[in-house]
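2024-03-11 09:14:02 DEBUG pipeline.ingest accepted 1 chain
2024-03-11 09:14:02 DEBUG pipeline.ingest length=321
2024-03-11 09:14:03 DEBUG pipeline.predict start
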Amino acid sequence: MQILPWHEKKLQYFMGIRQSGRLPHALLMTGPDGTGKYLFALELVRMLVVEGQSSDVRRMEIQSQFDAGTYPDYLEIRPLENKTVISVDQIRGMCGRLALTSHDDLLKVALIEPAESMTHAAANALLKTLEEPSGDALIILISENRGKLPQTIRSRCQSVLFTVPDNETAMLWLNEKIGQDAERYLELAGGAPLQAMNYHQQCLAEYHDQFIAGLSALSAGKIDVVEMAQKWVEYDRTILIDWLMGITRWMVNRKMGLKDTFNAYGKSMNDLKISVDRIDLIKLFHFQEELQRSQIDSDANLNRELFIEKLIITWSDLVLT
C-alpha cells in the first residue's frame, strides 16, 4: 500500500510512541471525507504489526496475510448489509474476539466505521471494553461527525484529527493521478484529494457546471423551485450539500472582501458574483449553519424531494430578497 504523503508525519508519530510503549488502547480518527482516514488506519495497523517483527521471514509472512486479507487478529465492524446502524450484538461479538488470546502474541485490532452509526446500546457495550482495555488490543474508531458520539466514548480515545493537506502537497499527489484536471477537481472537493479522485472518476465537473448554472438561473428568476428540484433530485445528497457549502464559503469570502478561495464555477461565475452584492450577510451565515446541520444529519430519514425543495426555497429567500 502506498503511503499518502500527508499521512507520513502522523505515521512516524505513532510508530515512535509504539516503540516507547505508550501506544493508546483506542484511537478516534475524525475529519472530513476524502482525507484518507481509513487508508491511514490500515497502514498504521500494518506498520504496527509487520514492522514490529524481529525477523525478515516473519515480516514477510505477516505482510502476505495483510495483502490477502487473512490476518487473523484484525476485524472491521460496519453496518450489516441493508442496515444503517451498528448493532449491540456486533459490538459484543467484537469485544469477545478481542478478549481471546491472540495468534502468536500479535496485536489484536478492531476497526469501527462509521463509529457514529453505533446504536446507544452498542456504544454502551463498547464503553465497557474501553473502560477495561486489553493490553494487547487496539480499537480504532473512524468518524466524520465526532459530535454524534457519546462524550464517554470520545473521552476514552486518543483523538487523531485529519484535515485537508496544504494545496501544494495535494496538487503534487493529485496531478500524478488525474493530470490536467487536478486543480478543478481539488477545488470541487474543497481540498480533499481522495474526494477529488472520486469526483474525477464520476466525471462530476460537468454536473457542477449545470449546478452553478441552475443557481444563477434561480437567482435571476428564470426557473422556479419545482423545476429546480426536479433537476437536483438526481444529485447525491452529500455531494449537493458539499457543493452548496463550497459556494456559500466563497460568497461569505466575497462579501467580507477576502480572497476567493473556491473558484470551481466555470462560465457561471460572473452571474454568481453579481448576485452576491445584494445578499444579506447575516442570512448567508444562517444558510451556512443550516447546511452544516444537514451535513451532521445526513442520515436523517427525510423525504428527498422535500429536503431539496426546502434547500431551494431557503436559497431563493437568500438571493431574491
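2024-03-11 09:14:41 DEBUG pipeline.report Residues 204-320 form a domain with the Zinc Finger, Delta Prime; domain 3 fold (CATH 1.20.272).
2024-03-11 09:14:41 DEBUG pipeline.predict end
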